[in-house]
């Protein structure tokens, strides 16, 4: 269906509005950045009065930007920081102590700003991270059990992570969620959190490796190394992206070898790895497998690994070189 002239005009008008909004946001960001840098450059003791004036200008610019309808990530983040700082104040001169009431008020106001920020920019991982930190602080003031607080924080993490981008900042939040699920003593839920964290995988690839490492360490620290095969098997039952699947199996096998786990458990991981495409290219793990079998006195198995490696590797000459 061809667009009508009216629809095209509406689209052009909307595009114009967005362009003007971005231009205004950029102007507000420039103003706020200027005053923030001015505050940071003035030493508190030598330039106390000038610093106070610059800080007041910064807060005024931030609030004006919000009143202007700014949807800038930077403005929201600075507004949250300003609200918290303004509410807390400096306390009694010298010790900078603040009342519980003041802390509660600043936490709540900061949280409200970050809630608005989340609604305005749901894909922002920086805002998601700050919101969850603020939410966690507000939970500390609630008369709830540790289990209830953990449950509420987990629920917020689930909701926030569904919409935000998977970048470096978000991966840190995903790692926290995996650890939180591990502490709740539910292996299936922890596995599910890991699967969600890597599906689709974040970019660049080192972030995937970071999540895999966090997952394996969480299993060891909260369930013991003996549960690692079960945890990995549960994860591998899920429709993982091929790069994640291959990375998980390899990391699992490497950890078993490094920790000198019983060979019957190490073989489970290595057998899974040998089925992956990566096994056709990775000479090093075949050699480590053979060496582990020999160290365990399993010379026939070691010979079998060698035979299998030379028939699996795309370039078996590399194996013999090693």
Largest sheet: none
How big is the Rg?
27 Å
Total helical segments:
15
- What is the typical, i.e. mean, pLDDT? 87
- Element pattern in H and E: HHHHHHHHHHHHHHH
User: Which class best fits the helix and strand makeup?
Assistant: mainly alpha
Determine the N-to-C terminus distance. Answer: 64 Å
Overall strand count: 0
Helix proportion range: over 70%
Provide a descriptive summary of the structure in words.
Residues 1-25, 84-109 are annotated as: Disordered. Residues 84-93 have a biased composition (Basic and acidic residues). Residues 1-14 have a biased composition (Acidic residues). It contains 15 helices and no strands. Helices cover 75% and strands 0% of the residues. The protein has helices at residues 5-41, 48-67, 73-88, 100-120, 125-140, 146-163, 168-183, 187-197, 206-223, 228-236, 242-258, 263-274, 283-295, 299-312, 317-321. The longest helix has 37 residues, at 5-41. Among the domains are: 166-278; 281-322, no CATH class. The chain is mostly helical and 322 residues long. Residues 90-99 have low confidence and may be disordered. The termini are far apart. Helix 6 (146-163) packs antiparallel against helix 7 (168-183) and helix 8 (187-197) packs across helix 10 (228-236).
What would you say about this model in short?
This protein is mainly α and 322 residues long. It has 15 helices and no strands. Residues 1-14 have a biased composition (Acidic residues).
Features:
322 residues; 15 helices; single chain; mainly alpha; 0% strand
Topology:
Layout: H1 5-41, H2 48-67, H3 73-88, H4 100-120, H5 125-140, H6 146-163, H7 168-183, H8 187-197, H9 206-223, H10 228-236, H11 242-258, H12 263-274, H13 283-295, H14 299-312, H15 317-321
Helix pairs in contact: 1-2, 2-3, 3-4, 4-5, 5-6, 5-7, 6-7, 7-8, 7-9, 8-9, 8-10, 9-11, 10-11, 11-12, 13-14
């Amino acid at each position: 269906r061809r667009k009508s002239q009216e629809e095209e005009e509406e689209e052009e008008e909307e595009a114009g509005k967005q362009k003007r909004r971005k231009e205004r946001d950029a102007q507000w960001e420039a103003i706020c950045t200027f005053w923030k840098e001015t505050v940071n450059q003035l030493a508190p003791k030598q330039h106390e009065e000038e610093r106070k004036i610059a800080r007041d200008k910064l807060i005024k610019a931030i609030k004006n930007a919000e009143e202007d309808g700014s949807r800038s990530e930077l403005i929201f983040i600075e507004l949250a920081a300003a609200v918290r700082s303004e509410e807390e104040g400096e306390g009694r001169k010298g010790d900078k102590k603040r009342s519980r009431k003041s802390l509660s008020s600043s936490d709540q106001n900061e949280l409200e700003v970050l809630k608005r920020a989340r609604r305005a920019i749901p894909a922002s991982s920086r805002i998601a991270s700050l919101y969850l930190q603020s939410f966690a602080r507000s939970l500390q003031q609630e008369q709830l059990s540790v289990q209830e607080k953990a449950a509420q924080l987990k629920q917020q993490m689930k909701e926030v992570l569904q919409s935000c981008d998977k970048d470096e900042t978000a991966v840190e939040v995903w790692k926290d969620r995996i650890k939180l699920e591990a502490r709740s003593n539910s292996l299936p839920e922890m596995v599910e959190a890991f699967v969600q964290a890597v599906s689709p995988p974040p970019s660049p690839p080192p972030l995937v490796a970071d999540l895999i490492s966090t997952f394996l360490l969480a299993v060891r620290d909260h369930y013991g190394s003996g549960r690692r095969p079960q945890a990995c098997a549960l994860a591998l039952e899920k429709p993982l992206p091929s790069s994640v699947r291959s990375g998980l199996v390899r990391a699992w096998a490497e950890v078993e070898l490094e920790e000198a786990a019983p060979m019957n458990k190490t073989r489970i991981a290595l057998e899974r790895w040998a089925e992956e495409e990566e096994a056709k290219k990775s000479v090093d793990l075949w050699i480590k497998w053979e060496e582990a079998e020999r160290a365990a006195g399993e010379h026939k198995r070691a010979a079998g690994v060698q035979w299998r490696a030379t028939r699996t590797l795309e370039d078996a000459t590399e194996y013999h070189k090693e």
